[in-house]
Specification:
This protein is mostly beta strands. The chain contains 1 helix and 24 strands. The strands form 5 sheets. It has a 7-stranded antiparallel β-sheet, with no helix packed on it. The protein has a 7-stranded antiparallel β-sheet with strand order 12-15-16-22-21-20-17, with no helix packed on it. Pfam families: NTP_transf_9.
């Protein structure tokens, strides 16, 4: 849910270039096996692509653990780095991240960027952060709106509402969250899909849509217990406007570009190496 699209028409664009580095003015902790292995007040945001940053932390702020050099040099947007494993007690995590080397963007040399999934949990101050760090340059606003909404797929009406909560998130299409009473659930099939967003939290449900033309997988979702900043969407449902026909005040809206993970995966550090 937090994966950014390619350029979205009529939406603010990402302005932070790959390779950019900023200080993190928050205590950052990372946990592995129930204990903190990262505890720092000196983390850096590093943008490996414009969508969102990752944390890079000074090696000196690792706690009761050690890096294991895996003898592989990476060429990433912020500069060169060396692949690292992580050893904490009896726990060994191979391919856990990379140590920035000389020639990396200013402020990165001597810091390590762990893969998000290499640790069990990340915290900013005392609040857990999911999926990736929240970008200081991203806004997510949930605004009530009295504009009429109609959602169709294959010519079948899925929802009609005279109000919604519109969610504006930098770099993403506007999302329209509707009351469940305005949605035809006889056309929806619950699925086991769960996704997470650093700004909204973890989804409580996904649904596919069944029309006479067939089944469209995972088109609808809900956050029953979103983060406190997004409480206006609690219990409401939203549709991927990329995959449905959405009418706003009777006017068909253009479908935004399809979500893509290509850039996100390219930023994972599995790219150019030697």
């Amino acid at each position: 849910m937090g994966i950014m699209t390619e350029s979205v028409p009529n939406q603010p664009k990402m302005i932070t270039p790959a390779g950019h580095v900023e200080p993190v003015p928050r205590r950052i902790r990372g946990f592995l096996g129930g204990r903190a292995v990262v505890d720092t007040l000196r983390a850096r945001y590093v943008w490996e692509w414009p969508g969102y940053p990752q944390y890079s932390v000074p090696v000196a702020d690792l706690v009761d653990c050690e890096l294991v050099d895996e003898d592989r040099v990476l060429k990433l947007a912020p500069g060169p780095a060396r692949r690292q494993g992580l050893k904490a007690g009896e726990t060994v995590v191979p391919d856990a991240g990379w140590l920035w080397a000389e020639g990396a963007s200013e402020g990165l040399e001597g810091t390590v960027r762990f893969r998000w999934e290499a640790l069990d949990a990340w915290y900013e101050e005392d609040e857990q952060v999911f999926v990736h760090p929240r970008s200081p340059y991203t806004r997510v606003d949930a605004l009530r709106s009295g504009r009429e909404i109609r959602v169709e797929l294959d010519g079948v009406v899925l929802a009609e509402a005279d109000s919604s909560v519109m969610v504006f998130e930098t770099g993403l299409p506007t999302r329209y969250y509707l009351d469940r009473l305005n949605v035809d659930f006889t056309l929806l099939l619950p699925t086991d899909t769960v996704t997470s967003c650093p700004y909204k939290g973890k989804t409580s449900g996904y649904w596919s849509v069944e029309t006479p033309a067939g089944v469209h997988d995972d088109v609808v979702w809900a956050y029953d217990f979103p983060t406190r900043q997004l409480t206006p969407i609690a219990g409401l449902v939203a549709f991927y406007n990329e995959r449905v026909d959405l009418y706003l005040d009777g006017e068909l809206q253009p479908r935004p570009p399809t979500l893509t993970r290509a850039t996100h995966e390219a930023s994972s550090g599995r790219g150019s190496s030697e």
